[in-house]
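Q: I have 396 residues here and want to know how they pack in 3D. Can you give me a structure?
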Amino acid sequence: MKRGVWLLTLMLMMPQIGQAIPAFARKYGLSCVMCHKAYPHLNSTGRSFAAEGYIFGDGSQGTLDIGDNMLNLFDRVPLAFRFQQWAEARNFGNATLDFQSPYLVKLLSGGPLGERVRYYAYIIFEKGEPPKFEDAWVELRKLPGDLSLTLGQFQISDYMFMRETRLTRSDYMIYRMAPANNGFSLTYHRGIALGLPFLDAVIGLVNGNGIGEATPIGTLGAGRPYRDFDNNFSKVVFTHFSLPLPIPIGVLAVAGRDTLSDSLGNQNANTFFRAGLDAMADGETWDAFLQIIWGQDDNPFYQASAQTMQYYGGFLGLNYTERFPQVYSILLNVVETPENDPAYQALRVRTLSLTASYYLYRNARVFLELQGDLLPTDAVHRETENLLTLGVDIAL
């Protein structure tokens, strides 16, 4: 079947978790503009390409033909690199001018092993820390009932908006909020996710304690080989699906329960919920996106006397690409809490980011971003924190 027909088919598919990397452009001999409005931001074709398993055509392109139809090997290992570095001026902290170069380097790999298996992983060198895996997952596709199953490390938030493909340095802050002492946020976890063949729906189960190191199980036996990636008996369940409206509305629900020891060694439980809505309007030379999330923890500090706490917020963004290679982005972040507890008051965020990008090449841009702090100063938020970033972002 001709490539154009496949592209049309892909554009009709709904997006799932996934990322695009330059290795795919090399594999299929296509320009980055096929899947990106402006790197790293995906267009509808790019989102659909990820949803369809990183495949154009029958899935055999870029694989070795050695006469064994049960063996699937790449003819070259799909590798890519991403470099992000910047200089930051700010009105707070020890230094008002900070050179953060390199800030982030990624070694990425991903692709389809035919139509039934795909993977994606990257090793990240960030902020001078030792390298580690963040995304590292395998997806089994075309299971009975047209189901799919993802196993590994992934971000819950990727089922809504992928943080790695945003055009602003400013993050989607509501995803990073960890309002309880267990540190649970909507970003990286280890777990499984079952993709359903309707409403672009997914149901997942994750550890809920991030992607830190495994710890030994028990204290007896110096050579005991078993290690535990979780610190709690319970797991966290989540689901996300899209309502088929003129502008599709995504619905998120998250529920979990875990226990931690308080300062006296007593085991106390916290039951928590998250709920949200997301939407995106995508034009030819612009796109606007919205995320709203509400959260509640019935004992976030794991104390004998429980106290229910809530927070809410989200973000609103706009990207404008009419004047490419000049691209402009706006991102408003808001996190609020009705609680008076200082720990919860510290969660509050109100920032507005204005970003101007200039593309030297499709895969190399420089950008200037101003992030303004809109929160009033008070006993908790003692000073206004503004940032000016000059950055470089390259993928190859």
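Q: Anything worth noting?
A: Residues 3-11 form the longest helix (9 residues). The radius of gyration is 22 Å.
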